Amino acid sequence: MSTKYKAVEVTRPGVFTLTERPLTDPPAGQVRLRVEACGVCHSDSGTVDAVLPGITYPRVPGHEVVGKIDALGQGVSGWKIGQRVGVGFLGGHCGQCQSCRRGDFVNCTNQPISGAHFDGGYAEVMMAFPNGLVAIPEGLSSVEAAPLLCAGITTFNALRRSGAIPGDLVAILGIGGLGHLGVQFASHMGFKVVAVARGAEKEQLAKKLGAHHYIDSNAGDPAAALKALGGAKVILATASDSKAMSAIMGGLATRGRMIVVGAGAEAIQVSPFQLLFSSVGVEGALTGSPLIMRTRLASVSSKASNQ
Amino acid sequence: MIETFPLEKAEEGYRKMMSNKARFRIVLTMGTPV
Description:
A: 307 residues; six-stranded parallel sheet; B: 34 residues; flat
């Protein structure tokens, strides 16, 4: 086995460098992965452009990682050499903070972000924390599994926890890396799915993926169009475009929720009138725990849901 | 709906994603069988 491996580092904001690094043993409490696939996610820009707090360089981005464990650090149990595993955005919870003690691992306040606070999957080798790992089921290729570890789990978990039930009108705002998965999950969950995107270009595809309706947000007021369909119980905002989010808020049904999963820095505009006269809300949802990832992966392993 | 790029072309894949041209997910592969 080679004693070196290739990695793509961000050496300073916006600058990628392909390097060779010496292969080292995993530190105590970590595992070493031979990476097979790594998805490219919009939130990698948090590392590339130093948007996330606590970024130091050089840093290898990448948090949709699938690889095989090839070495176990001291004290690691429960994982085997040769096992195929995934690593998502959240690198592994601490188990000690208030959130962890409540069982809310996603909101662990000491959790490192993969590819941001430690080196990620734009590399042939990566070190990872055991409690951030998810086993990848047979029948799902590493390339297929990778995007499910962030884009997939984020949209799935947000919909799962949204309170919408089969038959409810659910809008997916933005048909991109997250939205194209969100439409499929929403459709499989039995929702009436409205895909919302700019232009007519994506209509056919959205419908093929399971959308029942399509709203071209360039063609008119998307909130009015959504209202005309009865109003949405849930709007899953996947596009990182705060203006588009503001523009569609008015399309919520009473007691509806807009769930924000697309990451943007600009403020979302919503008036108190909008919120209180129909009891609607805006909330955020961050990815999901390894257990939820496992549930998600197992449920798609027999059919390629991102094909 | 996955487009693969070899690791060596990570930057190209990243730039394509950032310019909203990915249809719909870009995945880097490491030259090992997947």
